[in-house]
Specification:
This protein has about 140 residues and is mainly α. Helix 2 packs antiparallel against helix 7, helix 4 runs antiparallel to helix 5 and helix 5 runs antiparallel to helix 7.
Length: about 140
């Protein structure tokens, strides 16, 4: 096998995904999309009904946008995750109990994951790998 770097879409996507809070942004965006899909009224009815029904569409849209912004602009993840968790908690009142709890939970969990993500952290090494490296180090040293 050669030591050249892998070429292709899958390794490139993995590298891109590793440099951002991917799962947090994805879950937040999916939560917003799920809440939007559970809304049944057309836009004409919402404009006629007033601001309360407009908020039912505005908050999940904010969640969806925050999730996408977390994916594509991870340097501002703290701000977007705070706005995302506030919007997802507010959907409890405005959007069918937060999309029947599913969208609310996806949004809250995704926002928490994005908030807790650390950009410059070394990848984790499994316990098995650490023991293997320690045995190899002991074998080399007398």
């Amino acid at each position: 096998m050669s030591d050249s770097p892998k070429q292709g879409a899958r390794p490139a996507f993995r590298e891109w995904r590793a440099r951002r809070p991917f799962w947090g942004g994805l879950l937040l965006a999916l939560g917003g999309a799920e809440i939007l899909l559970t809304e049944k009224a057309s836009l004409k009815v919402i404009m006629h009904s007033g601001a309360q029904n407009l908020a039912g569409y505005l908050l999940p849209t904010v969640m969806l946008l925050c999730g996408l912004l977390i994916l594509f602009n991870p340097t501002q993840r703290l701000f977007y995750s705070i706005i995302g968790v506030l919007a997802s908690l507010a959907t409890w009142l405005t959007s069918n109990l937060g999309g029947f709890f599913v969208g609310l939970l996806l949004g809250a969990v995704g926002s928490c994951l994005a908030f807790g993500w650390l950009p410059d952290q070394e990848p984790r090494v499994s316990r098995r790998q650490r023991k293997k490296e320690a045995r190899a180090l002991e074998a080399v040293q007398p």
